[in-house]
Amino acid sequence: MKVKKLKLLLIKILMKYGLNYNHSIITSNALINAELVGAHSHGLSRLKMYCERISKKVINPKPKIKIKKISKSISHIDADNSIGFVAADIAIKKTIENAKNTGIGLVAVKKSGHYGMSGYYAEQAVKKNLIVMIFTNAPPAVAPHGASKRLFGTNPICFGAPTASKIPFILDTSISVINRGKLRLAAHNKQKIPKGVALDKFGKPTIDAKKALEGVQLPIAEFRGSGLAWMVDILSGVLTGGNHAGKVKDPFDDFTGPQNIGHLFISFKSNLFQKNFNQRIKENIKVIKKLPKIKGVKEIMYPGQNKFKRFKENSKKEIKVPKNIKKDLEFLLK
Amino acid sequence: MKVKKLKLLLIKILMKYGLNYNHSIITSNALINAELVGAHSHGLSRLKMYCERISKKVINPKPKIKIKKISKSISHIDADNSIGFVAADIAIKKTIENAKNTGIGLVAVKKSGHYGMSGYYAEQAVKKNLIVMIFTNAPPAVAPHGASKRLFGTNPICFGAPTASKIPFILDTSISVINRGKLRLAAHNKQKIPKGVALDKFGKPTIDAKKALEGVQLPIAEFRGSGLAWMVDILSGVLTGGNHAGKVKDPFDDFTGPQNIGHLFISFKSNLFQKNFNQRIKENIKVIKKLPKIKGVKEIMYPGQNKFKRFKENSKKEIKVPKNIKKDLEFLLK
After folding, report:
1. Do A303 and B157 touch (CB under 8 A)?
2. Would you call B248 helix, strand, or coil by DSSP?
3. Using one digit for the tens of pLDDT, what is the confidence trace for A62-90?
4. Which of A266, B50, B62, B80 is spaced 20 to 30 Å from B199 by Cα?
5. A302 contact B CB<8A
6. Complex ipTM above 0.90?
7. Do A131 and B228 touch (CB under 8 A)?
8. Could you report the per-residue pLDDT of A206-262, keeping only the tens digit for each?
9. Which of B304, B224, B220, B310 is nearest to B40 (CA)?
10. Cβ contact (<8 Å) for A230 and B148?
């Protein structure tokens, strides 16, 4: 399906479910971007879930979003259980505004929901020559180090920086060995998952994606990854007023209330300390790219390069809509 | 040796090498703290190296440290190649001051050196009810993902938060599977290292610490850890005006010039968005500690708990000074 046609279709569906035109555009753009960068687990495959959550009144289609000014640099957003994309869109724009005005911006969000990919918002800040860090928590997936029960989300850490080229440096990494979205997709497609990624509900290693979903995912690097996940839970949950300590509901399985996810956005001007930041980052990347490579590696890539490449390639083509997603779209249009 | 006696001895040595009384105290305190928390690789074992660097004029014992005010929240420090401890001490105090005044503090440092453990400085901010993040780069140790040559330092990521208890939440994690200091100590003591931690200089896996030191250390979680290391190099090197892209000199092996390490300190008030932050973090930790544990685990610990425990226990005892360190001390006193 052509991007334009798909976008109109998504807007139609979202408006039918009660979002206003502007919020529908924001949401459609984010979902289509996920498809274009190849993150299908964060794209169309979630649309039905979002609509269901609106129907069941656990996403608020007509939120009264409040932005509280704490200082010229710092803001607090109560997203009133809006769809996460809208909350994050407002938050990143506020962060950029604060950083442009004062050098640094810090924006906390509470009462939000799943907003897709942090990197999508990081890109917006990087395009304005800002360095940016984004943290969000997520439903229980990963066991804290020493625990046998999942509690942390895959809690991504996202960092973006300008590179003096079209392709921004965007690190957007979950602290689990595998993304939960990928795991869900593997379970759906009945694919096996690699060893060392997850345990089943009895605490035994498994390569069965469905059993892994019922069990616990493993954090990267044991106590290090567990500590990073805990940090993200504090920054995006404890600090902001969002849910934390495992209380974020799974958007697919739990319709008993809003998710109340929290996010934290930090951004500052890249040339605060060195006027020639652009030249410095260019030199940095150049030196690293010139290193001798291990066998089979053609190019040393910086984070975000692969995603950008996929985006560029996919933007030229139509978006493939799998059968099950087509069914979803038809169902949602009825 | 009693802590007090050791401290006086260190001050005597550092002053003999040209540091002033105040800088000698700052440095001694940091080195002794490292011993007390059990991080021997960051304690007395480095004293001789620091003194040698002063003798060879690659650490400046009489630095003219300049603090440039960029805004009420943001400062830039040129440490004039001071010993890292002094630069970091000034920087964390400035960060705390800025955060206390405006809600958020951002301080970048250039022309610094190895400052011991990030967690030591994070603690100071946490004691003032601040949340803190600290980044520093380090000499080449870790190969970027896809490269066969080391370039990134073990580039620690440090995060601290108040816990409403005496024991702060301090995550201080290098992005390498093993700390370089531990590796150095293992090489010195002729101990083997675990599998999967490092490659020798020919790119082959090794459990020989000496061969690992000559080769490359592996980042945690492959491209994720490599990306985090790259992020730290940008934040602490490219951004600040410090060396980056592998140009930080090894303090033990390379006396051809100052290290020019960069650091970045970010801190903000923990109760910016939620007045009851203390209650929320207490609840967070309580819930996580109550999770069912895997076999053999007595308690789920948060980052920093173990270190605090060791500090408390060791503070009651005398500090054990190994033979080789005693020799160093005698040599330095001559």
Report:
1. no
2. coil
3. 999 999 999 999 999 999 999 999 999 99
4. B50
5. yes
6. yes
7. no
8. 999 999 999 999 999 889 999 999 999 999 999 999 999 999 999 999 999 999 999
9. B310
10. no
